[in-house]
Amino acid sequence: KAVADVDACAEGMRKVTTEIFDTGVVMISYLILLIGLDWKLTILACCFTPFAYLAAQQMKRIVYRYNAAYKKSMGKLNDITMDRIGGAVTYRVYGREDNRDEAYDKCLTEYEKKAVMANLWENSLPPVYQLISMAGVVFIIWFGSRNVIGTGWTAWNIAAFTTYLSCFAKLAIKSAKAAKLFNAVQKATVSWKRIKPMMKEYADRRGKDEKHKELEKSSGSSARVNESCNHELELDRKERITLEFRNLGFAYPDAMPLFEHLFLTARSGEMIGITGSVACGKSTLGKLLLGEEKYQGEILINGKELATISEEERCRFLSYLGHQPELMSDTVKDNIALGDEKNITPYLDQVCLSQEVEEMPDGVNTWVGNGGIRLSGGQQARLALARTMYHAGDILILDDPFSALDQKTEAVVMQHLRTLASDKIILLISHRLKH
Count of alpha carbons within 13 Å of 210, Cβ hemisphere only? Predict the structure, then answer.
């Protein structure tokens, strides 16, 4: 989606830079020639050209609106296409292929309609601009003929008349192209507004990286640099962590509150169980800590409001495991380490997966398939949990991590979690009350 928007922006810039010469300079040359032949008739014949530019200016809102709708529809189609590919096996297993095909066809039809409307407005307007610019031909035929017979503003022969008429026609065509240029710029503007936030994010990230390097050179302490770059939480990672909910509440737009008036204080070494009926907001509560939704009340980490903490800082201190494993089509090792070099064996032991991995054809280098399709449901869940524990921050949010485990394995993994929680806060979300 970003590449398509960049292409549209580049095309808009290309047209602007090339048309300055191909259209602007040529138009000036034609205009000088016409003024030399008959300046009065030139002023009269060219009085329609500004109306072509005015029409293009007025039509820019329509062009902008339809191109924005087209871009939005294209993005939606891209999303549903990727979802259809990535979840193909799941949809097949659960018999939802027809449902997804129907949704895809509906989205494709909408995209085609939006594309047609966007192209229709963009390509149908230039002939209108050209017709407006060419309206001065009427004056040229009338007053130019009088010049030929010697009763006009100047004396012409047939050659001068045809030269004037030909140059004016070319000038009018160039004027229509200049008017079309306005609409091309509007189309590029739509794309620019979509990629501008990405450009800003990239610039900010590079600025932070440069600041990080400068501080690292001056202080020699990467830990202190990270805290400075990411608007530090003003805590030593060896100190105890506190997590507080103060009068916390959440409601989806135009809906009753999912929960409200929630108070909680958790400290390092504590495991907090969060339970309740289906759809009561357990998973939503966990996602609030990821900054995905706006909430009422306060969420404080070491006394600092979560909403004021940068995304980088949240990633350092919070680890999240949803009830869907979300495995990559890669090896067991890479699904856990994600490129890090630390030994993964202790974490396989913690989730009771080491023996099963040893029995796999290539051990830790065994390919798990698309979304972990080559593993059982329990193996997928434990592999995802091993990854979370491998990259554990000070606060772990575990959303129903035992749903696919048998009771014996669950008890062992739970004990390992209690050991892990000796210096961390664990929020365990589940409807299973055994632990």
Answer: 6
What is the Rg, in whole angstroms, of the alpha carbon atoms belonging to the chain? 33
pLDDT for residue 221 is more than 50: no
Q: Can you name the residues that pair with 428 across neighbouring β-strands?
A: 273, 398
| Token pair belonging to 209 | 């990286």
**pLDDT for the residue 238:** 46
Task: Report the predicted TM-score, pTM, of the whole model to 2 decimal places.
Answer: 0.47
Quick one: tokens of 136?
Answer: 């001065």
Q: Which of 170, 133, 169, 140 is nearest to 156 (CA)?
A: 140
pLDDT, average across residues 231-249: 69
pLDDT digits (tens, 9 = 90+) for 267-295: 988 889 998 887 788 888 888 888 878 89
pLDDT of 182: 67
Amino acid present at 315: C
What is the C-alpha separation between 243 and 172, in angstroms, rounded?
A: 70
Q: How many CB atoms are closer than 10 A to CB 318?
A: 22
Distance CA 275, CA 280 (A): 9
Q: In 136-238, where does DSSP find H-type helix?
A: 137-149, 158-219, 222-229
Length of the chain: 435
H-helix segments, 22-136:
26-37, 39-45, 49-86, 88-93, 97-133
Q: Collect all residues with Cβ–Cβ distance below 8 Å to 158 and sequence separation of at least 6.
A: 148
Q: Between the CA of residue 191 and those of 117, 126, 182, 204, 219, what are the distances in Å? A: 17, 21, 15, 21, 42
pLDDT at 247 over 90: yes
pLDDT of residue 253: 85
Q: Are strands 271-274 and 259-267 parallel, antiparallel or unpaired?
A: unpaired
Mean pLDDT across the chain: 80
- Could you give the CA distance from residue 427 to residue 241 in angstroms, rounded to a whole number? 13
Structure tokens at 324: 């869907």
Cα separations (Å) of 26 from 19, 40, 308? 10, 21, 56
